[in-house]
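Changelog entry

Holo records now carry the ligand SMILES as an explicit input line rather than a separate metadata file. Below, a converted record for adenosine-5'-triphosphate, shown in the new format.
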Amino acid sequence: MPDAYYSVPPLGATRSAPPEPALADRLRRFPAGTHITIRGLSKTFAGTPVYDNFDLDIPKGKIVSVFGPNGCGKSTLINMISGILPYDRGQILFDGKEAHETRIGYVFQNYREAVFPWMRAIDNIRYPLQYLGIPKGERQARLDRLIESFEVQFDLNAYPYQMSGGQQQLVSIMRALVVDPEVLFLDEPFSALDYEMVMFLRGRLQKVLTERQVTTLLVSHDLDEAVLLADEVLLLTKRPTQVAERLHFDAARPRTADTSVSDDFIRVKSRALEVFQREVRK
Ligand SMILES: Nc1ncnc2c1ncn2[C@@H]1O[C@H](COP(=O)(O)OP(=O)(O)OP(=O)(O)O)[C@@H](O)[C@H]1O
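Structure line, unchanged by the conversion:
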């Protein structure tokens, strides 16, 4: 563990049982700039442990990509952190709070199932705002700001069936961001889209995330994408899954196709590939 560990005030009110003393102590120690602390996380599917006593610190306001062997538990990890999937043991805190006390956005790979087909694009995006209890005028202002940030070029009064796959995924990304999330989870958000759309969405998303400094966890099967978008690449081992290595990538933003031919990019990607190949051979 690095030296720079900081004590935090007593943990905030949590819904789950208080952690056992050893875990509570581990929860109070994390590097400066941490947003999410994960301690002692365990999850078993049908008798097979996917995570066993897993610890991780996720920095605030950064984009972290999660990359690892097939089936190692990338989606399981972000689903547990985001509160979608229950875990067997352990604790996950967001600045001392639990998931249900945190504004969270989630973008699924399968946009066709994620957008509401009976609602126009604009109503899909607006939908979560009704649960935030903010005045109507402010809701509209938020929506307008978001539309402006993404420089949306198509008609937001269209229904999903009238839109391309990329446009539908953009709608689901905007719906996740309209709540002004503290943390955004993206599970393979671009894998079903054509390359032109992927480049467009990567560019827009990077711009918005950098402006808003949203803590972001991105699962990607595409190593180029995992490195290109990330401040940090989290490389996982095979099951039971641990952190194999964490790689920092601090190229200037916005990152474009040119970034992916830079020396720095090639260095980080080569190291990631080396670690990945070592892990899959184990
Ligand atoms: N609901 C479930 N019931 C049983 N097993 C599950 C369930 N969800 C996931 N698993 C298993 O847990 C392991 C991790 O799954 P997960 O989808 O998180 O991996 P992943 O790294 O995201 O996979 P991939 O690389 O294929 O996208 C896999 O072996 C998967 O079959």
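Spot-checked after migration. The radius of gyration is 19 Å. Residues 63 and 229 are 7 Å apart (CA to CA).
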